[in-house]
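Both lines are quoted verbatim for reference:

——
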Amino acid sequence: MKTTTTIAIIAAAASFASADILNAGFESGTGTDAADWAEIIGGPSGSVERSAAMPNSGDYSAYMYFDHINNAPAGGAYFIEQNQPVGSITAETDYNLSFYAAVDSTDFVGMDTFVQILWLDQDGSDGGGVRGETLTSLIGLGISDSYQQFSLDLTSAAGADSFLLRFQLSAGAVNGIANGLYVDDVALTPAPGAIALLGLGGLAAGRRRR
């Protein structure tokens, strides 16, 4: 009985570890629209799309672009986001967000690019709305014009039952700037510590049953 219980816990932990919570690839979609992602253009001279121009893997990536050289020198924000449903995450639990990203140019004058996660209480059981936020500058993490993998350790907020993940390219009202952000192979998975807690919980439950 002990062996069976232990094997079951190991199998559950392995499944938990490999489970990517996001519908994160950009291979699925129609034309420039990526399935499961919302593409939002918040300025007069840019675009957000599923692009075959420079994927890290497969045939497509997400691409956010602005051009303040050939258009009016006005600022804007261009982003792609995914909103996960109630029950997609557990409150106060450790997760790892990983993704590959690159830019067209490392001339960052007047602009920045971010990854943002909002921990949400969408069923209203703990007051509703945004329960916590992490906003990270990819320039601060050392993004370059070649793909590299980024990895962020995150803890979901108290009262959260879901989340919104957003990648954003922002520019100020500065003329003479053009740049683009590529994002690919995004994954949000439980952190090793969360997997260990799952195993301990399963062992405790097994002992109580015996």
About this structure: The chain has a mean pLDDT of 85. Helices lie at 2-18, 192-209. The longest strand covers residues 178-190.
